[in-house]
Amino acid sequence: MEGGSGPGKNEVAVKLGSSDHLLGLMTTRRDELAAAWIEVVSQTLAGRISRAELDQELHELYAALVEALRAGGLDASGEHYTEVRALLAELSRNRARQGFRPAETAVSLFALKRGLERLLDDGSADDVAAYLALSRLTDELGMFTVDSFAASREQIISSQAEELLELSTPVVKLWDGVIGVPLVGTLDSARTQVVMEKLLQELVDTGSAHAIIDITGVPAVDTEVAQHLLKTVVAARLMGAECIVSGIRPQIAQTIVALGIEFGDIVTKATLADALRHALRRSAQRAALSVGDAA
Amino acid sequence: MSDRVPILRIGENLLVSIQIDLDDQTVMNLQEDLAAQVVKYGARGVVIDITAAEIVDSFVGRMLSTIASVSRLLDAETVVVGMRPAVAITLVELGLSLGGVRTALNLEQGLAILAKRASAGAAGR
Known about the structure:
Largest interface: A-B, 23 and 26 residues
Oligomer: heterodimer
Number of strands of chain B: 5
Largest sheet of chain B: 5 strands, mixed
CATH topology of the largest domain in chain A: Globin-like
Structural class of chain A: alpha/beta
Helix content of chain A: over 70%
CATH superfamily of chain B: STAS domain
Radius of gyration of chain A: 33 Å
CATH class of the largest domain in chain A: Mainly Alpha
Distance between the termini of chain B: 44 Å
């Protein structure tokens, strides 16, 4: 019975043994190893992060690593490594924000191997096993670091894009019953979609019967952009509001004609002031009519 | 048997407030009922309030146009009010422009349009 399950047990024993020896090394020669590790990392980061900060970060990580190793062995995706993974995620996030490259982030972990190398002078079988164990561990955690680095950078980029979108599409109230959208910058489908939805929602919220889309700040108009503009105007009309397009610059007007885009019966004005005057005149006509009703 | 949308009378105008998701049969019934009521009460205006409608498909869109044309034949102006932005965008994407249908942002503005038309008509008479 003992003999039947022998090989499996032996394998387990070797695994446990190696991580035990690694744990022993990491505990007894803690200061030496940590110092060597920090030394290597700070060399690669070349003073772009303060030594004290690095010290604190890596010591924290080191302590968590030893703790996890003691409780959970080499299972880097296990629950005992939650703390380590949280620290690594935070480290990657900080590095991403500070503009480090992914390699420079991952090296923080891989350098631990280099630190261990210096301690293995006699090269006994136990030492080799410990080195291999650490190697496996850092590989797995290194992958995790790169992953979370990419994830946090992705997040930063998308939140910036969102902020930019929010920034660049204000809907302003110009007068009672007249709202305006000053468009600045290049229009693409995503942006036009946002502009469209914001404008239409604002029409509903304010009950404004007139909207002015000012494209003075739009550098170029192609068929796609024109198509989006036309759609917005038609959608506003469907909801019972009138849209005026203003601020078409001379060369853009020429482009539009050259492209053969038909604006149809959509009111266009050269400047925002003209558009506002037109809108006010229209609403004044309405007002005059309703005053006439009352009289 | 599908639901029937109630039609309310306010003075010379008829008000239809759509509170349910419209299926094809309901819209067909609405068209018939509206035509009958316009004649019965001699209505001058029809207001269709679609504030609560989340979805307007191409069939319903076309029927709104048809209702407007039928009502016009019976001397009543149709105003569709309270269309949501999402609905408007969908209709535009579908390529429907609801030709011949007057629209207004809300019920108040819709009734104002009808009142204006009524007073213009009264002056003309």
